[in-house]
Amino acid sequence: MLSLVLEEKGKLSLRDFPVKEVLGPRDVRIKMRKVGICGSDVHYYTHGYIGPFVVRAPMILGHEGAGEVIEIGSEVTTLKVGDEVCMEPGVPNPHSHELMIGRYNLDPEISFWATPPFHGCLRPEVIHPEMFTFKLPKGVSLEEGAMVEPVAVGMMAATRAQITPGDIALVYGAGPIGLVTAMCAIAGGCSKVIISDIQQPKLDIAKSFSGFIPVNSAKEDLAKIVLAETRNRGVDIVFECSGNEKVASQVVLPLRPGGTIVHVGIPLENVAWDIAAAIVKEARIEHVFRYAHVYPKALDLMASGKLQVKKLITHHFNFSDSVAAFEFAKNMPADGVKVHIDMDK
Ligand code: ZN
């Protein structure tokens, strides 16, 4: 079974790579059909690590997947052979304290696809727990199914923000996570979302979504636009999705007093944080690490037409060309948002 293997930092190969997996009574076997390339996959390829997670042995990449159920365990009740599904890539220890308190995404022992030492889904088949496998509703394609993973991060960010109807948000960063976060903020009740970036082609994509106000912060005065759009109050919510240290250190500035900051992007370096400014505004600060309990809601919103994620899939590759797909994603052009791999070809 050919799989896309990260042999070590900077070295990928498409080769036979058997993974020992047994179908348990509450598992399903899935034929992979569509997989999106995530920034984290590319980061492992180019750097060999993310924070404490270090690639020490060959690892199959990919965690944004959708496919078709081809076998079910003896106790599976919610899925059947032939169902089109998407999979939540992180499976927590069922006995963890974090799962007990409803925050299973924080389980330090979680096995998460393509986070060392766990293999990802850029392979013909996977075995996955029924509990973390979701049938795609009518009208949601496999491609959209493979978008649920990044969308789940935006869902989590919008949930943490505790949006109230009519809120105005500012999203820093118009990459895949910034765009899905802005979409989820609108779906969650925001009247408008100002989205800032310095890459114009990404902002041009943002422009096509209703409620988005794209701002090129390299050319336009973001602070002025924020005031003009908010009756000089500042935004109710700031979503930091750029991961840029300088941006992350200034998130209090555009916020209205009593507003909420949600940190989604992960800066590589420590950030100088203006606590005094945050205190004066009594800013509520939230952090988002992956997601929990949002896959079904993301699918329902997609089925309702409120999350139009198709436009974000800007480039397609065949699985047989997946090494080239990673080379492309590594040097992503400014008009690229999400690269998808067709596992059937
Ligand atoms: Zn991802």
Question: What is the strand and helix layout of this fold?
Answer:
Elements: E1 2-8, E2 11-16, E3 27-37, H1 39-47, E4 49-50, E5 53-54, E6 59-60, E7 64-72, E8 84-87, E9 90-91, H2 97-100, E10 111-112, E11 125-129, E12 133-135, H3 142-161, E13 168-172, H4 176-187, E14 192-197, H5 200-207, E15 212-216, H6 222-229, E16 235-240, H7 245-248, E17 255-263, H8 275-280, E18 284-287, H9 295-304, E19 313-318, H10 322-330, E20 338-342
Parallel strand pairs: 13-14, 13-16, 14-15, 16-17, 17-18, 19-20
Antiparallel strand pairs: 1-2, 1-6, 3-7, 3-11, 3-20, 4-5, 7-8, 8-12, 9-10
Helix pairs in contact: 3-4, 3-9
Write structural notes for this entry.
By secondary structure, the protein is of the alpha/beta class. The chain folds into two domains: 2-135 and 308-342, Medium-chain alcohol dehydrogenases, catalytic domain (Quinone Oxidoreductase, Chain A, domain 1), CATH 3.90.180.10; 154-287, Rossmann fold (3-Layer(aba) Sandwich). 26% of the residues lie in helices and 29% in strands. It has ten helices and 20 strands. The protein has helices at residues 39-47, 97-100, 142-161, 176-187, 200-207, 222-229, 245-248, 275-280, 295-304, 322-330; strands at residues 2-8, 11-16, 27-37, 49-50, 53-54, 59-60, 64-72, 84-87, 90-91, 111-112, 125-129, 133-135, 168-172, 192-197, 212-216, 235-240, 255-263, 284-287, 313-318, 338-342. Strands 3, 7, 8, 11, 12, 19 and 20 form a seven-stranded mixed sheet that branches. A six-stranded parallel sheet has the order 15-14-13-16-17-18, with helices on both faces. A hairpin with a 2-residue loop joins strand 4 and strand 5. Helix 3 (142-161) packs across helix 4 (176-187) and helix 3 packs across helix 9. The radius of gyration is 20 Å and the shape is globular. The mean pLDDT is 96. Bound molecules: zinc ion. Zinc ion (ZN) is lined by residues 38, 40, 63-64, 149-150. Zinc ion is lined by residues 38, 40, 63-64, 149-150.
